[in-house]
Amino acid sequence: MWESGFEIVHERGRWRSSHGCLIFQTMKRVLVIGPGGAGKSTFARRLAERTGLPLIHLDRLYWRRGWQPTPEEEWRAKVQEIARGETWIMDGNYGGTLDLRLEACDTIVFLDVSRIVCLWRVLRRQSWHLGRVRPELAPGCPERIRWEFLTWIWTYPSRRRGRILQRLAALDGRKQVVILGTMHGIEDFMSRAGSSPPTQVVSDTSVC
């Protein structure tokens, strides 16, 4: 069980509850990760609007027309290049390049959303956009339904979530890490994003 509100903030080398602690530094390079259907693209877009930081959707860069993936070596080089930018908000998982992005960013937002919610959102999204290209995808990549993707979402908590949390904990205070698991926490974070000076966070929501 993780604690509440903005969930856990990794600050100065220790995991702390967000109750009353400062979680906003000056954010210049923000990485948004989480399971499929967690709302990464929407969160990143809204955060870009709030902060004025450039927005990068990794899905749009990785997939080519007809859902053809970028070759592995080329993709890693591309991510390395864009991560050198002075400012950005970047959403997407792509475990093969996560090390590059974790090293380059100053803030990581992990949307730790329930798999039930994620599945519902994905099915709703696919029904709305089936056969059409979503704005965050490359031209020639219409929305599609894949059993493999639904399975990936369902097994995310048991197969991937733990490893992600370990990697975030291993950053040992070098980065600002925020874990959001509820709509209340997400909206609270968003309402404070871009505020200056940093905002003190108080929240009473809880997530298991």
Strand and helix map with partners:
Elements: E1 8-11, E2 14-17, E3 29-33, H1 40-51, E4 55-57, H2 58-62, E5 63-64, E6 68-69, H3 72-83, E7 88-91, H4 98-104, E8 107-111, H5 115-129, H6 147-169, E9 176-180, H7 183-192
Quick structural summary:
By secondary structure, this protein is of the alpha/beta class.
Q: What does the radius of gyration come to? A: 17 Å
User: Total helix count?
Assistant: 7
List segments where confidence is low: pLDDT < 50 over at least 5 consecutive residues: 1-22, 196-208
How many domain regions?
Answer: 1
CATH-level-2 architecture: 3-Layer(aba) Sandwich
> Which fold name fills CATH's third level, the topology?
Rossmann fold
Helix content: 40-55%
What distance separates the N and C termini? 5 Å
Give the CATH H-level superfamily: P-loop containing nucleotide triphosphate hydrolases
Residue share in β-strands:
15-25%
Instruction: Record the strand order, biggest sheet.
Output: 2-1-9-8-3-7-4
How is the main sheet built?
Answer: 7 strands, mixed
Q: In sequence order, what are the helices and strands, one letter per element? A: EEEHEHEEHEHEHHEH
User: What is the class in the CATH system?
Assistant: Alpha Beta
The SS-based structural class is alpha/beta
The strand count comes to: 9
Mean pLDDT, all residues: 80
Label the overall shape.
globular
